[in-house]
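can u pls check wat happens w/ adenosine-5'-triphosphate
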Amino acid sequence: MQKLIETKNLFTDFNTFEGVVKALNGVGLVVNEGETYGLVGESGCGKSVAVRSLMRIVQAPGRITEGKVLIFFRAEDRSRGIDILRRSEAYMTSIRGDSISMIFQEACTSLNPVLSIGFQVGESFHFHRRAQMLEETIRDLDEELGRGGFFLARGWKVLSRALFARELGALKEYEGAIDRIDHELYRLEEAGSGEPLRRKGALQRRRDRLGEKSVLAEIARRVPGFRRYRRRLERTVRRHVVELLRSLGVPNPERIAEGYPHELSGGMQQRIVIAIALACHPVLLIADEPTSNLDVTIQAQIVELIKSLKQKVISSVLFITHDLGLVAEICDRASVMYAGDIAETASVRELFRQPLHPYTQGLLASVPKLSQAGELATIPGTVPNLIDPPTGCRFHPRCPHAMEVCKGVKPPTIEHSPGHWVACYLYSDGKK
Ligand SMILES: Nc1ncnc2c1ncn2[C@@H]1O[C@H](COP(=O)(O)OP(=O)(O)OP(=O)(O)O)[C@@H](O)[C@H]1O
Ligand code: SF4
Ligand SMILES: [Mg+2]
């Protein structure tokens, strides 16, 4: 299977007054093209920090201290990938919301209460699909001009068309320059040890300084009254927003687009957040507990929606949850996370059929079953404080199989059977 994105040995810390929270302890995960990958674990184990690190949106006082995040879908050599931790913020901005999108944990807090729904969904089209929006607007104006009309109205349309065409030209020039610089950066990175760092730094800065430089559009933007011509572009964007909302099952999308987040129910807000994430047809959709805080019927609808979108629009989904039932229902492969470490990774079928890591076994044993009589199994102890986490295997204070070796060095992750990875000394020294 072709890899889409991979994190290698990722460490993220939070410097707090109480001490350094070691939230990620060398996380390595892979999402392949075309799959739904689940990330499961108890609250506080680092699921959200892991995906925030992957998108480079860890907020202060958080900091990625070590590791790599490789993306393969933009790499010229698809077997090697591009380490996005070594690229500029401008490079990341071009990826976020475009190739990789995220549905955040709390739908209501990720929407801006003072901006209309239409504006918030439309921002993605403006930012990442500007060329397409301009082309469609020009096409509409051409059609209208072809139908004739009043002399003054025609004059205004001809002028608007010229301004949009100029803006489109400048945008294409800008995108061409960015592509050339990205190609050059990639070539320099491939050069390996003899990589001329100074040249790379200069290229990176040049890329960040580039902008859409259309003098005409800039004048038009600043002169009052003249700006009216841009309403044509807004109309094109709004058409796409309404189409998108309709495709996601939002009733009366024209009215909803005019409204504000507080006017919507939790389930509908979640659909809007999904719409924002999907506006640009990302190759990877990250869904961070998209159904928490929703009642079960709305939960089921949102899960069905993500499943159907996965078949139609998105290539891969990274689904975060602590609900093992959901993992069984929608994921192809999954990783179990514990206290900042990936404990086990396997296909969902294998994970449920033969869990290897004692933590996974404990998690599965604590899921209530209809046939079960008596008390439910639990994992003894509590999640450790990540300021002063246990040494070696972070699970050792709670593990029924803990050995002396477990307290020393973190267990290596080994491939126990094809595609089934586990980090536990029960397997790495051949005892089982
Ligand atoms: N801004 C922050 N400052 C300090 N510590 C933080 C911060 N954000 C996260 N952490 C710590 O990082 C660890 C992982 O947090 P994270 O939010 O990734 O957990 P999670 O697995 O997503 O949990 P949940 O299922 O509840 O969302 C936690 O111990 C948390 O306390
Ligand atoms: S490494 Fe040791 S403590 Fe950790 S899960 Fe395996 S047996 Fe338990
Ligand atoms: Mg979380």
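The chain has 16 helices and twelve strands.
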